[in-house]
Amino acid sequence: MHTAASSSTSRNTRTPLVAKDLSSLRLGLVELVPELRGRACRLSGDPTTAEDIVQDTIERALKFASQYERGTNLRAWVYQILFSVFVTRYRRTRREKNALRALASDPCAWTTPERFSSPEAGADLSPTAKGKLEALPETFRAVLKLVDLDELTYREAATELGVPVGTVMSRLHRGRKMLASQLLEAA
């Protein structure tokens, strides 16, 4: 007898999909397509968009196949690519909607140049935000400045601080939460 509980257990204990060479990587990608469709559909909520996400994911996986570390979990690698594709599409859609909203209110908005500030100028923070940022513990403040203000990648910030990338990500998350709660209290 096959129950939902045993199905759930078998899903959680899938054997890792591993590719040893380009040929097995391609075969693994073909095998993963149904799973990717399901994941993309759950993320996007739309089967048509999910198909586009899966297609972009497979395309990107093939393009960057040389970056796949042979013998590691192919499923995890491809799922990470899928999530990255989803986030990129979501951000692009949001930017497009904002642009259309601006054009709806001002049809000539596209001809108005955006204000440009040089990267050396840094982010313009309000005095309150600067104060709250400076009040954070140094470990969190340093990560926030490097990633959010100086726009370094996680890896670059990790190198600069001499800590693992995961530590940067953790400190960034916690630092942002602390800063946000302090700014809410000030408001």
What does the overall shape look like?
A: extended
Number of structurally distinct domains: 2
- Please state roughly what percent of the residues sit in beta strands, choosing from under 5%, 5-15%, 15-25%, 25-35%, 35-45% or over 45%: under 5%
Topology, number of strands: 0
Q: Which fold name fills CATH's third level, the topology of the largest domain? A: Rna Polymerase Sigma Factor, Chain: A
Quickly give the CATH architecture of the largest domain. Orthogonal Bundle
Q: If you average the pLDDT, what whole number results?
A: 81
Tell me the Rg in angstroms: 22 Å
| Gap between N and C termini | 59 Å
The CATH class of the largest domain is Mainly Alpha
CATH superfamily of the largest domain: RNA polymerase sigma factor, region 2, helix turn helix motif
* Main beta sheet strand tally, sense and closure: none
Helix/sheet category: mainly alpha
Q: Helical segment tally?
A: 8
Pattern of helices and strands: HHHHHHHH
Low-confidence stretches: 4-10, 115-123
Instruction: Please bin the fraction of helical residues.
Output: over 70%
Give an overview in words.
- The protein is mainly α and 187 residues long.
- The protein has 2 domains: 14-105, Rna Polymerase Sigma Factor, Chain: A; 125-186, Winged helix-like DNA-binding domain superfamily/Winged helix DNA-binding domain (Arc Repressor Mutant, subunit A).
- The protein has 8 helices and no strands.
- Helix 2 packs antiparallel against helix 3 (47-63) and helix 2 (22-44) packs across helix 4 (74-105).
- The chain is extended.
- Mean pLDDT is 81; it is low at 4-10 and 115-123.
